[in-house]
Design brief:
The protein has 271 residues and is mainly α. It has two domains: 81 residues, Arc Repressor Mutant, subunit A, CATH 1.10.10.10; 174 residues, Up-down Bundle (Four Helix Bundle (Hemerythrin (Met), subunit A)), CATH 1.20.120.530. Helices cover 67% and strands 4% of the residues. It contains twelve helices and four strands. Strand 1 and strand 2 form a beta hairpin. The longest helix is centred in the C-terminal third of the chain and has 23 residues.
C-alpha cells in the first residue's frame, strides 16, 4: 500500500502546475454547475483562488481552450467563457486515437448496421415538417446528375447529412452523438480509389437516393418498423458499395495548429 501511495504521489509531482490548475478549474466548473455561456472568474481572481502565478493560470486556460472547453476573449470585458465542446473538436481527438488502431471500413459499417436503424426508428415520432423538408432537399441535392468524380465524391459525403438530419430529431443524446461522430469521421477521413470509374460513384449515389427516398416516405407515414428495416438494408447495401469502391480511412495525426484553430463549421442543412 505504501508503494502505491508513493507511486501516485510521484505521478502528481510529475504533472505540470498548469495541468493541475486546469483540473482544479474543471472541478470549479462542476461544483458551481457552470453551463455554456457562463464566464470563469478573471485571471487575477483565479491566481488568488489557486495561489499561482499569472503564467500558470494562462497555461491552464490555454490547455482548457485546446480541449474545446472554453473560449478566451481579450479586452476589458474579456476572459474565459465556458462553451459546449464542439463535435468537430471531439473528432480531432478521436482521429489521433484511431491513427494507432487497426480500424477498417468493415468495422465501421458493422457498427452502423446496429446504430443507424435504431437512430432512424427512434427519430420517426419526433420528425417535424422542417425535418422532412431538409431530408427532401438533401435527397435532391445528392442526385448524381454529374459525372465529375470530385463532385460525385462530395455528394457521397453530403449523403451523410441525411443521417444527421434524422439524428437531430432523435431524443437519445448518446445514440445521436455516436451516429453523428461516425458520420463526421466518414465525411472527413474516408478516401476512395483514384482508379474507380465515375460510373461506380454515380451508381452508389443512385442507390443512396432510392434508399433515402424510401426511408423518407416510410417516416412520413409514421411506420417505425419499416424505417428500421429500410435503414438496415441501406447500411448493408452501402457497405457493399464502399467495399467495391475500395473506401479506406485516411489516417494521420492532427497537428497542434489544427487543435488551436476555430471549430469546423457543419455543412448546411444539419442541426
Amino acid at each position: 500500500m505504501e508503494h502505491v501511495v508513493r507511486s501516485q504521489t510521484s505521478r502528481v509531482r510529475q504533472q505540470k502546475r498548469g495541468d493541475l490548475v486546469a483540473e482544479d478549474i474543471k472541478r470549479l466548473v462542476t461544483q458551481h454547475e457552470l453551463r455554456p455561456g457562463d464566464k470563469l472568474p478573471m485571471e487575477k481572481e483565479l491566481q488568488k483562488l489557486f495561489g499561482v502565478s499569472k503564467s500558470t493560470i494562462r497555461e491552464a486556460l490555454k490547455s482548457l481552450e485546446v480541449q474545446g472547453l472554453i473560449t478566451i476573449s481579450t479586452g476589458p470585458t474579456g476572459g474565459a467563457t465556458i462553451i459546449e465542446v464542439p463535435l468537430e473538436r471531439t473528432l480531432l481527438f478521436l482521429q489521433n486515437y484511431l491513427f494507432f488502431q487497426d480500424v477498417t471500413m468493415k468495422d465501421i459499417y458493422a457498427a452502423r448496421r446496429l446504430l443507424e436503424p435504431e437512430l432512424a426508428a427512434g427519430a420517426v415520432p419526433y420528425l417535424t415538417e422542417k425535418h422532412f423538408r431538409a431530408l427532401e432537399e438533401n435527397i435532391e441535392n445528392c442526385q448524381p446528375t454529374s459525372r465529375d468524380e470530385t463532385r460525385l465524391v462530395y455528394q457521397r459525403q453530403a449523403d451523410l447529412d441525411f443521417h444527421d438530419i434524422l439524428a437531430s430529431a432523435n431524443p437519445d443524446p448518446f445514440l445521436r452523438f455516436l451516429c453523428q461522430m461516425t458520420n463526421e469521421m466518414l465525411r472527413r477521413l474516408v478516401v476512395f480509389s483514384t482508379h474507380t470509374p465515375p460510373e461506380e460513384h454515380a451508381e452508389f449515389g443512385c442507390a443512396n437516393a432510392k434508399c433515402h427516398t424510401d426511408i423518407l416516405e416510410a417516416a412520413r407515414q409514421g411506420d417505425v418498423e419499416r424505417v428500421r428495416h429500410l435503414m438496415r438494408a441501406h447500411m448493408d447495401e452501402a457497405s457493399g458499395f464502399v467495399e467495391r469502391l475500395n473506401g479506406q480511412l485516411d489516417g494521420r495525426l492532427i497537428l497542434d495548429s489544427e487543435m488551436m484553430s476555430p471549430p469546423f463549421k457543419l455543412p448546411p442543412g444539419r442541426s
